[in-house]
Specification:
CATH superfamily of the largest domain: Hexapeptide repeat proteins
Strand order of the largest sheet: 1-4-7-10-13-16-19-22-25-27-28
Oligomer: single chain
Shape: elongated
Largest sheet: 11 strands, mixed
Structural class: alpha/beta
């Protein structure tokens, strides 16, 4: 392994032989770093943090520190980060607090840009992009392929659905459904994320079916319960439609609606 002589390594760490630890990094006790991951310089990783293979972490990131939660009682919790994830300068990812499963988790192939904050107990899926200074409060769930714009604040316990896009400078206080675009200081829906879906390989038929569902759910004047029944009655229940209906049905904080 390549460990710069200025780095400080704690006890019981497991660092793969092909990992690279750059100058002035501080690695806490019980940290695990997999093959090919590179810490460029000046990075602090606190105890019980696990980082997957082929990640790149840029200077002044801080990972695994105790949560900003007054309920936290010092118990042993951790952070787990998947493979091929990029974490840019000054980003912070905190370990879990009480009341969850003990882990803050980031998936594979994520792009975490500068000054991003991911709070305790968050669950971030695979292929997620978070732009500069996007902020997740505690217990937020971000599903696969979501894109969160810069300077976005997401309320605790809120969910961001798969393949959705959140516009920059937004405040997210309710769940953002999969496949949609949300934006605004009190975020509202602005339609289907059609361009994003095309880029991800969705077919025209899939997108058209989702547009029909979006119209029934968010444009027609129905309650969500009535709209869900209409979607189930009128549309082909493809995997995408099932996912959309399941996400909406399981909401606890309410669903972002159209303007």
């Amino acid at each position: 392994m390549q460990i710069h002589p200025t780095a400080i390594i704690g006890a019981d760490t497991k660092i793969d032989d092909e990992a690279v630890i750059g100058p002035f990094c501080i690695i806490g006790d019980g940290v695990k770093i997999a093959k090919g991951t590179r810490l460029i310089s000046n990075i602090v990783i606190d105890e019980n943090t696990e980082i997957g293979a082929d990640c790149v972490i840029h200077p002044f990131a801080g990972l695994g520190f105790p949560p900003q939660d007054l309920k936290y009682d010092g118990r042993k919790t951790g952070v787990k980060i998947g493979s091929n994830t990029i974490i840019r300068e000054y980003s912070t990812i905190h370990r879990a607090s009480v009341g969850g499963d003990g882990l803050t988790e980031i998936g594979d192939n994520c792009f975490i840009m500068a000054y991003v904050h991911i709070a305790h107990d968050c669950k971030v899926g695979n292929h997620v992009v978070m732009a500069n200074a996007a902020t997740l409060a505690g217990h937020v769930e971000v599903e696969d392929h979501a894109v969160i714009g810069g300077i976005v604040a997401v309320h605790q316990f809120t969910r961001i659905g798969a393949y959705s896009m959140v516009g920059g400078f937004s405040g997210i206080g309710q769940d953002v459904p999969p496949f949609t675009i949300a934006s605004g200081a009190r975020a509202k829906l602005y339609g289907l994320n059609s361009i994003g879906l095309k880029r991800k390989g969705f077919t025209d038929d899939q997108i058209q079916n989702l547009k029909k569902a979006y119209k029934i759910l968010f444009r027609d004047k129905h309650t969500l319960k009535e709209a869900i029944k209409q979607v189930e009655h009128e549309l082909d229940m493809t995997d995408e439609i099932k996912k959309l209906i399941e996400f909406i049905s399981n909401n606890k904080r309410g669903i972002c609606r159209k303007t």
